[in-house]
Task: inverse folding
C-alpha cells in the first residue's frame, strides 16, 4: 500500500510541478515578450483538466503519507520533531497554493488585460516556486538535510 501511495504521489508531483515549470519556462517568456494573453489562457485551459485532479491526489496521498510517518496530526505544526517540521512545511505550502489559486480565480483572471500581464506573470512564478518547494521538502523527508 505504501509503495502504491508513494507512486501516486510522485506521479501527481510530476504533473503539478512539471506542468508549472513548462508554463513558467516555456509558455510565459514568449507571452510576456509579445504581450499576449492567449498562449497562457490556452495552456491553463488544457492544464487545469489534469492539474487540479493531480493536486487533489497530492493532498490525499500526502495526508496518508504524513499520517503514516507521524500518526498524531496535532503534532504536525510542532517544530520540535524533524518529520513534523516537514509535514508542517508541506501544509504551509498547501495553504499558499490554495491562497494563490483563490486570488487568481477571484481577483486576477476576471479582470485580465494585457496591461496586467506582469501581475499574472508574478503569480505564475509564485505558484511554480511553491510547487518546486513541495518537491524539495518531500525529498528532504528522506535526507533531513534542510529542515
Ligand atoms: C503539489 C503538491 C505536492 C508535491 C509536488 C509533492 C511532492 C513530493 C515528492 C517529490 C516527495 C518525495 C517522494 C520520495 O522521496 O520518493 C514527497 C514526499 C512526501 N510528501 Fe509530498 N508533495 C506535495 C504535496 C504534499 C502534501 C499536501 C502533503 C501533506 C502533508 C505531502 C506529504 C508528503 C510526505 C509525508 C512525504 C514523505 C513520504 C515518505 O518518504 O514516506 N505532500 N512529496
Result:
Amino acid at each position: 500500500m505504501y509503495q502504491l501511495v508513494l507512486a501516486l504521489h510522485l506521479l501527481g508531483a510530476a504533473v503539478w510541478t512539471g506542468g508549472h515549470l513548462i508554463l513558467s519556462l516555456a509558455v510565459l517568456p514568449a507571452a510576456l515578450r509579445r504581450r499576449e494573453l492567449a498562449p497562457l489562457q490556452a495552456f491553463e485551459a488544457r492544464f487545469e483538466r489534469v492539474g487540479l485532479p493531480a493536486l487533489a491526489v497530492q493532498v490525499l496521498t500526502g495526508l496518508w503519507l504524513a499520517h503514516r510517518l507521524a500518526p498524531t496530526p496535532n503534532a504536525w505544526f510542532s517544530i520540535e520533531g524533524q518529520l513534523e517540521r516537514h509535514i508542517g512545511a508541506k501544509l504551509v505550502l498547501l495553504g499558499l497554493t490554495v491562497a494563490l489559486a483563490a486570488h487568481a480565480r477571484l481577483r486576477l483572471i476576471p479582470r485580465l488585460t494585457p496591461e496586467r500581464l506582469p501581475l499574472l506573470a508574478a503569480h505564475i512564478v509564485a505558484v511554480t516556486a511553491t510547487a518546486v518547494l513541495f518537491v524539495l521538502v518531500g525529498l528532504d523527508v528522506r535526507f533531513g538535510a534542510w529542515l
User: Anything to note?
Assistant: The chain has one domain: 2-143. The CA atoms of residues 28 and 90 lie 26 Å apart. The pocket of protoporphyrin IX containing FE is lined by residues 6, 9-10, 13, 16-17, 55, 58-59, 62-63, 65-66, 69, 87, 90-91, 94, 131, 134-135, 138-139, 141-142 (CB under 6 Å).
